[in-house]
Amino acid sequence: MPVITAYKDTPTQTVDVGGTTFAYRRLGPDTGTPVIFLNHLAAVLDNWDPRVVDGIAARHRVITFDNRGVGASQGRTPRSVAAMARDAVAFIRALGHDRVDLLGFSLGGFVAQVIAAEEPRLVRRMILAGTGPAGGEGIDRVTPITLLDSLRAALTFKDPKEYLFFTRTANGRTSARQFVNRLKERTDDRDDSISVTAFRNQLKAIHEWGVQRPSDLSVIRQPVLVANGDHDRMVPSGNSADLARRLPDARLTLYPDAGHGGIFQHHDEFVAEALEFLGS
C-alpha cells in the first residue's frame, strides 16, 4: 500500500478500546516512533491544521483520534483531564504501541502532561502547544472567553477559532482566514461535530484543571518542546514560559503576533522545529 502523507486523503478508521469504538486516522511512514496528536477543546479529527499534520507526517507516522464521546468515537466524554488521559493511553495500547511521541495542543497538552507523568515508559518525547500546567494562570477563565468569542463569531458569521486562536491585528486576521480555509480542504468522509454534552464535559475538565493544585512537573523527564503564540488569550502565554521553567528538559518557542493557534499561524516554522526536535 502506498504511504499516505496528505491528511485530507487519509481514511477514517476505528478500533475497539475496551468495548468502545474510537475513531482515528493514521498517515505517514509505517516505521519509527508514532506521533500521537491530542486535540483541543471542541475539536474533532477535521480540526487539525493539515499543514501541521502533513508536515510532520512527511517523516513520522502521525495518528490523530477522537477521544471518548468526541466526534465519531463512542462513549461518554469524561469530565476530568485524568480520565481523558487514561482513555488516550488505552487507545494507544489498543493500536499495539508501547512507545510514542505526543503532540498535545491546548486541552490535549493537559492530557499529554498526565500521560507523561503517569506512564513515563510510554512517552519518548513530547510537544506541548498552546497549553499550560495544572493551576496555571487564567486557565479557569477558558469557559467565559470561549462562550463570548463564540457569540462574537455568530454575530459576524465567522468561525469562533478566528477570535479564539488568533490576534486581531491585520496579520492575525489574515492568518485566521487562511487557517479556517485549510480546515475545509477535506471534502469527503468528514468527522461528526462535537455534541453539546461532550463540549460541556470538556469545559468542566478544563475548569477543574485550571483550579487544581499545581503538579510536580519535575517527574516528567522526557525532552519537551513548548510552543505558543506570544499573545494567547485562552491559555495565557505566561503558562508556556512556566512550563518550560518547571520541566527538567524543555525548550520554549513563542511566535510573534500570534495567539492560541500560534503553531497554525506559523506552521512552517513550527513544523521545521518539531521535525528537528522529534528527530534529535
TrEMBL record:
SUPFAM superfamilies, per database record:
alpha/beta-Hydrolases
This protein's name: Pimeloyl-ACP methyl ester carboxylesterase
Q: Which InterPro entries match?
A: AB_hydrolase, AB_hydrolase_1, AB_hydrolase_fold
The protein's matches in Gene3D superfamilies, at most eight in alphabetical order, are given as: alpha/beta hydrolase (3.40.50.1820)
Q: Which GO terms describe its molecular function?
A: catalytic activity
In Pfam terms, one family for this protein is: Abhydrolase_1
- The leader peptide range reads none
Q: Which residues form the AB hydrolase-1 domain?
A: 34-266
